[in-house]
Amino acid sequence: MPASEPALTTGGRRRPAPAAPAGPPRRRRRRRRVRAWLPGLVLLTPSIVAIGVFVYGLIGWNLRLALSSKTTDISPAHFVGLRNFTRLWGEERWNLAVRHAVLFTVVFVGGALLLGWLLALLLDKGMRAEAGFRAVYLFPMAISFIATGIVWRWLMNPAPPERAVGLNALFQRLGLGFLANDWWQNDRWGMAAMAVPAVWQMAGYVMALFLAGFRSVPEDLREAARVDGCSEWQVYRYVVFPQLRPVTLAALIILGHISLKVFDLVVAMSGKQIITDVPAVYMWQMVFDAHNPAKGAAIATYMLLAVAVLILPYLIWTLRSERRS
Amino acid sequence: MTVLARRPPSLRPGVGRRPGGGRRVGAVRFVLLLGFVVLFLIPLYVLLATSFKPLEEADPSRAWSLPRTWTLEGWRAALDALAPALWNSVKLAVPGAAISAVLGSLNGYVLSKWRFPYADAVFAAFLFGMFIPYQAVMIPLVQLMTKTHLIGGIPGLVLAHVVYGIPICTLIFRNYYATIPDELLEAARVDGAGMLRTYASVVLPNSGPAFAVVLIWQFTSMWNDFLFAVFLTGPASWPATVQLNNIAGSMVVPYGQQMAAAILASLPTLLVYVLLGRFFMRGLMAGALKG
């Protein structure tokens, strides 16, 4: 292997090439170096082009559409600035959709984090049939949101007591009739109920993340705390939990970005009803029913911005810490 | 556990860990965990019990009971309504997952072992594509697909899934290949092997687990996807999720049939989960979740 070729590394730091005594002229060396990495670039090119066009190109195209006057399928696309973006906030429906998305996010992210954390805590010390427990908590992840929506729509059926099915009927049977409620059809807190199936689906994932986090805390550390007289609870409180911050952040961001995009579940639960409207459903209707591409594109751009605010700092942070390690 | 975790963190309890808190705490934990198992399985019970109920037992008073007479009516009707869509999903998810895995493997190889200047920046740009809400590209994508006559068919849907799956597949393979020692590759290069020969002779034979993870991951997300399908396909090429939503959305379809259809549409991914759960878990831990 010629000394001037970059060594195979993963960290991007080239091994210093041994100084070649009476080596080839610099230009030839550079050409050799280029020859060393060029095939890689060529092999990656189709993917770079695909991502460039389908991700970044189309985002740009979408933005142009959002800034245009194309409010029907046939109207011309003149540049109109931020008009489509500002007009949305004057609409009751848009404000409602944003409110719904926020409420859903708070309940879903909070609920999944709490339940996942609790399950991990209960499992941490090891348990008979642990693999079985984990499998049960995780299986909802393998199911589509559409299938989840179908069964939960039955469970959260808001029909009046005499016709009640689902959880309301179960509550009555167990003498807990006061718990019966109108679930997602409640016009103030309905989206909180909508988050319940999502928690059911994702809590197992959070459990897996936290369980891995718990178990990455070295046993010596816990033992040292015990020797210092910590109770088992204090070991968790002062030794284990503080180590979980990166895991919690990762879970928070992953759940958060799923939540901001919620679409399938809402469609399967309630279709296009305004009472559970969220930006993704609103955008879908602007494209298919209202045929207003500019407005649909503006809503989509808002969704992208919301996710970008969450994801970009996280991506930069993880890539930096990877480079450091 | 973070997006870039090199190796999936282990879930095994630490060696020599003290069974904590004595027997009583252990028993309380067990009971609590069991309680959650019951809660988590309620929807599964509803799906199964309702799917075997005949129409006459649709009465709300029997909502939570097991069927008095077990019937396959619902299942038969569901299969009739869902069969073409299930086949479409197969035609989507099997080739889609295979193409994704091959692409991801080559990309991951380049980005971990055959790096070029600014490879990190390219990788970061890929990663962002993993998290974007696909709504942000959907309207232009539909226009583009219409212009290229790919709209409404399965090839167009496969193309979309493969392209937007590039980031996660590349990520999983890149992280996996980072664990292959460089010395192994250098040896091949000293023997005069080029990039592709090194890949075929050293890297590919060591890629089994990563292929399993990516194949399962992509199969599951393509099978369960609704968003792309609803925008990009027409009635003849609707996959199972879209058809399932149509079945459930019409008010006349009895619950039994709806539930049977939901189970049918979920069976392939559930089966994959049960049989290959280990790899499924690794996919979950390696990559963040595509929503």
- In this structure, how is the largest beta sheet of chain B organized? none
What's the overall average pLDDT of chain A, rounded?
Answer: 86
Structural class given helices, strands, pairing of chain A? mainly alpha
| Helix percentage range of chain A | 55-70%
Tell me how many strands of chain A there are: 0
* Order of helical and strand elements of chain A: HHHHHHHHHHHHH
CATH architecture of the largest domain in chain B: Orthogonal Bundle
Low-confidence stretches of chain A: 1-22
The CATH first-level class of chain A comes to: Mainly Alpha
Total number of strands of chain B: 0
CATH class of the largest domain in chain B: Mainly Alpha
* Total number of domains of chain B: 2
Q: Which CATH-level-2 architecture of chain A?
A: Orthogonal Bundle
- How many separate structural domains of chain A? 1
CATH superfamily of chain A: MetI-like
The major sheet of chain A is characterized as: none
Q: Could you characterize the architecture of this molecule?
A:
The complex is a heterodimer of chains A (325) and B (291). Chain A has 325 residues and is an all-alpha fold. Chain A is built from 13 helices and no strands. In chain A, helix 1 (26-66) packs antiparallel against helix 13 (293-324), helix 4 runs antiparallel to helix 7 and helix 10 runs antiparallel to helix 13 (293-324). The longest helix of chain A has 41 residues, at 26-66. Chain B is an all-alpha fold. In chain B, 50% of the residues are buried. Chains A and B meet through helix 1, helix 3, helix 4, helix 5 and helix 6 of A and helix 1, helix 2, helix 3, helix 4 and helix 5 of B.
